[in-house]
Design a protein that fits this description.
The structure is a single chain. The chain is an alpha/beta fold. It has a single domain, classed as Glycosidases (TIM Barrel, Alpha-Beta Barrel). The chain is built from 14 helices and twelve strands. Strands 2-3-4-5-6-7-8-9 form an eight-stranded parallel beta barrel, surrounded by five helices. A two-stranded antiparallel sheet has the order 1-12. Strand 6, helix 10 and strand 7 form a beta-alpha-beta unit. Helix 7 runs parallel beside helix 9. The protein binds beta-D-glucopyranose.
């Protein structure tokens, strides 16, 4: 099999999010969702991967794998358990964790919001209530005051488009609403939150004497295609799907350009509100009518049933770059593969796309470092490079994790590595 070299500037990392790995009885919206029996499984966020207790072990595993940068999130409901009350112990815990990763040579990339809200915030209307933006920004201020001397790379909000559509368009995420007007409102409010957070983080760190601040969002990007390549009606559906799900979101968040159906509620000026293009990419949707999420029988799929389409990453990077010419950070890219039977092939195919990219790509965060709590599907869907036995919490680096380790060490896939790790693997249909 062929080998390839990776771009010089590309740093290789892995990602997680707090609620998905930490465990503990934290009052965030997803744990409330679990209590209301709204998950597809009986698993509990209180267990997850017990990272709150095992953070040191997990960082040691990353260090042994040579992970260069780690994208993780802090849990707002831990930092601010009651409105306006900040938990110094939780802050100190996260500081220890960040200090230790830096000591181990791992560069932190901190996500401030990854799907979960404190329950008290949701009760006040969450991001559907424009006046709550200032509450989010107060939390951002506390986070930067607490960690700003250690962290220069920030993702303000993870996948606002998934958060809004899944939570407010009848897709089963909290708060379980089904109202397209609310989707627009939430996205408009969140865009304002991001823009203000972008400015605030830069301002605060500049005052601390730092000039290397990098702030962006992690946008969930899909590749789209028509079911029937000859259908003009389906082509139109592709344009509408893309527009509503990602283009309009990217324009508002990254450029401050609010186009229908989003609204500029804060009088934001058009500009550039990101230092990198954070791309979370997983799959391609086939479309007959707007909003469809279909797969074709002949295409390879992962254990979630999502099409495996690595070249889609290059398509979505170009789309985003056309909206805002900044370097790309692949803030998430991963695969649900319960038995680790094709993850190495996926890594090989996905990184090959980056090796050929004409757009500058500075980061790649494989999702996820660990098997973790996959939202509605709990412990049943495995994305990790490291296997977690949730009963015993034993961690074991998977074969794909060893492959990634060698890729990082060589900053390349050699022919010999490809033969050892990838040859003979196949995706299933
Ligand atoms: C989310 C992750 C999630 C992953 C796989 C992304 O949309 O940011 O939290 O685990 O997809 O579903």
């Amino acid at each position: 099999m062929n080998g390839y070299r990776l771009p010089k500037r590309l740093m290789l990392g892995a990602g997680t999010s707090s609620a998905q790995i930490e465990g503990g009885a934290v009052d965030h919206t997803w744990r409330e969702w679990e209590k209301k029996k709204r998950l597809h499984v009986n698993d509990s966020f209180t267990r997850a991967a017990d990272h709150w207790e095992r953070w040191k072990e997990d960082i040691d595993i990353m260090a042994a794998m040579g992970i260069e940068t780690y994208r993780f999130s802090i849990e707002w409901a831990r930092i601010e358990p009651k409105a306006g009350v900040f938990d110094e112990e939780a802050i100190a815990h996260y500081r220890r964790e960040i200090e230790y990763m830096i000591e181990c040579g791992i560069r932190p990339c901190l996500t401030l919001h990854h799907f979960t809200d404190p329950v008290w915030f949701a009760r006040r209307g969450g991001f559907a209530e424009p006046s709550n933006a200032k509450t989010f920004l107060r939390y951002v201020g506390v986070a930067v005051r607490s960690f700003g001397d250690l962290v220069s790379d920030y993702v303000t909000i993870n996948e606002p488009n998934v958060y809004a559509y899944m939570g407010y368009a009848g897709q089963g995420f909290p708060p379980g609403d089904n109202n397209l007007l609310k989707v627009q409102r939430v996205l408009s409010v969140m865009a304002g939150c991001h823009i203000r957070a972008y400015e605030k983080i830069h301002r605060m760190r500049e005052r601390m004497g730092f000039r290397d601040t990098r702030v962006g969002i992690a946008l969930h990007m899909r590749a789209f295609a028509t079911m029937n390549p000859l259908s003009a009606v389906q082509s139109r559906s592709v344009v509408i799907s893309k527009w509503c799900f990602q283009d309009v979101v990217a324009k508002a968040f990254l450029r401050g350009t609010f186009m229908p159906p989003l609204q500029n509620m804060g009088g934001f000026k058009a500009g550039v509100y990101c230092d990198f293009l954070g791309v979370n990419y997983y799959t391609r949707n086939h479309v007959i009518k707007p909003g469809d999420d279909l797969t074709r029988p002949q295409d390879p799929k992962d254990d979630y049933g999502w099409e495996i389409y690595p070249q889609g990453l290059s398509e979505v990077m170009k789309e985003l770059y056309a909206i805002c010419p900044r370097p790309v950070w692949v803030t998430e890219s991963g695969i649900c593969d319960d038995n680790d039977s094709f993850r190495s092939l996926f890594l090989y195919d996905q990184l090959a796309v980056l090796a050929k990219s004409e757009i500058s790509v500075e980061r790649y965060y494989y999702w996820s470092l660990l098997d973790n709590f996959e939202w509605l599907d709990g412990e049943t869907k495995r994305f990790g490079l490291v296997h977690v036995d949730f009963e015993t919490q034993k961690r074991t680096v998977k074969r794909s994790g060893l492959f990634y380790q060698e890729i990082i060490r060589n900053h390349a896939v050699t022919e010999d590595m490809a033969d050892r790790y990838v040859k003979g693997l196949n995706y299933h249909l």
